[in-house]
Amino acid sequence: MLQVAYIYQEPVQLVFNAHNADPNLRIDYEDWENTKELIEFLINIYAISSEFAKYKGKDRFEDSLDFMIEKFKKYFFPIRQID
């Protein structure tokens, strides 16, 4: 969804800002730069999470996978930009 909004940032920004009376809450260039960076970050988080999901529940990988997931959550969550 963020990727689609980023692609159509001009019309999204025009409509959002036109319906927003508070100038402090309007979308600007910096917001789109932050969105782009967040998209790039989340793509990697999704890829790592998908790999973990492939092996979850397999006895052979249970101990090491639990350890990796714990470390992953420690360093990457919560994601302040989303909270």
Description:
The chain is an all-alpha fold and 83 residues long. It has one domain (2-76). It has helices at residues 2-7, 9-18, 29-55, 62-76. The chain is elongated and about 55 Å long.
Q: In a nutshell, what does this entry contain?
A:
By secondary structure, the chain is an all-alpha fold.
* Helical/strand content category: mainly alpha
Shape: elongated
What string gives the helices and strands in order? Answer: HHHH
Supply the number of helical segments. 4
Radius of gyration: 18 Å
The amount of beta strand, in percent, is: under 5%
Give average pLDDT, whole number.
87
Q: Which blocks of ≥5 consecutive residues have pLDDT under 50?
A: none
Number of strands: 0
Helix-residue proportion: 55-70%
Compute the separation of the termini in Å.
17 Å
Biggest sheet details: none
Number of domains: 1
SSE topology:
Layout: H1 2-7, H2 9-18, H3 29-55, H4 62-76
What would the keywords be for this entry?
single chain; mainly alpha
